């Protein structure tokens, strides 16, 4: 791969053209695209954006990965993958809240200046150059599409928990092959031996996960206004359910469960934060709605920062109640930790209600993430970095229907056989990397374009930007080594694709053949 990249680099780029890789797209060009008559339909207000934020942020993280963050994680052989935070999980949430607040401030400034569908991709194109923008666009696939695989699988787990007493579905139809292969649970691993076989390979597929992604994809084809209405309903349901969990759970807190508070010290808090970061990804999905937002200069900062603040408060309260109800060490192997805690304290009926709420909650996350990814592809295709068909908008519903369908097919098929644990880490490291570059980008733009109007300005921008990028990198360090290896391969494949297609078809380069960093 290294040899191939070197040969492609010398063939397509060459030393003389190296600086053209960092050509920046003028903000004026980005703004004109957002107002194109054949573009997306502006239909969302500030309230819709806050609901989108809650819909995206409160989901599989709080209903799924919170258990692994509290208890730690081991592989099928019993080896420790990560240490757990224990009851100090609330400190992990505080750490992540600070990290995301700093990144959120930077997102808010750039989103108010560049209300374009590309999110972090568009911001880095305007600040750090084309090659970095491509890397971020490729990287955001990890946050949206790959992240949604984990959400869909977690949705399937809660669906089984909810319907297990009423519907008898064979386990080989509700468990993905990779989940069974990697599980440390002997009962789950035993399915590899008992499942039907096709050409000698065990048939283990997660039909519920596949079905919910297919349903969400169909809904998104109907238009942004219709999707937002459904999301608002789902968000109301999830907030009511979480409120019920808090009220009932606080009545069954055993203070002995808070001792030891941090069983693995700061290492556990750090590593717990690295996985539970999955609970925070998605607030930036609001910025992908920029071209479909009314008065984006005002409403985008409100949506990003308002949604993030609400979700952080909810997370801290949930973490405190959950780890007080049951010993945190019991949460690691649970696919549905909130429902498990309620059952363990005798509230089986309430557990069913929470499982129902989780089904609604994670459906909202799926909706928002499936909404965001096609718009990243849409922006990249409009810039020539992806084929033109990816920028097509449906004539009636005004949505990027081709990329919406392809994203849905990709996520549904992976969720059919994949494992949530594998995708958590890959999603987290990709998202943190994107956040770090946005924090750097806002500082760069203050120097390269200081006079441009900024409807929202980050206070103490150098301190906030540097601290935000530093915290993101610090949280990334808490992820397992395998996550870094996979992330490295992912970036290498992305750069290879850019050299083969994106560099040669860039609209910016075609329109300005002699483009350079200084000229742009």
How would you characterize the overall build of this protein?
- This protein has 520 residues and is mainly α.
- It has 20 helices and 4 strands.
- The strands form 2 sheets. A two-stranded antiparallel ribbon has the order 1-2. A two-stranded antiparallel sheet has the order 3-4.
- Helix 15 crosses helix 16.
- The longest helix is centred in the last third of the chain and has 35 residues.
- The chain is globular.
- The two termini are 32 Å apart.
- The C terminus is likely disordered.
Mean pLDDT: 80
Number of helices: 20
Overall shape: it is globular
Residue runs with pLDDT of under 50 for 5 or more positions: 516-520
The value of Rg in angstroms is 22 Å
Q: How are the strands of the largest sheet arranged?
A: 1-2
Gap from first CA to last CA? 32 Å
- The total beta strand count reads 4
Return the structural class.
mainly alpha
What are the secondary-structure elements, in order, as H or E?
HHHHEEHHHHHEEHHHHHHHHHHH
Main β-sheet: number of strands, strand sense, barrel status? 2 strands, antiparallel
Content of β-strand: under 5%
Helix residue percentage: 55-70%
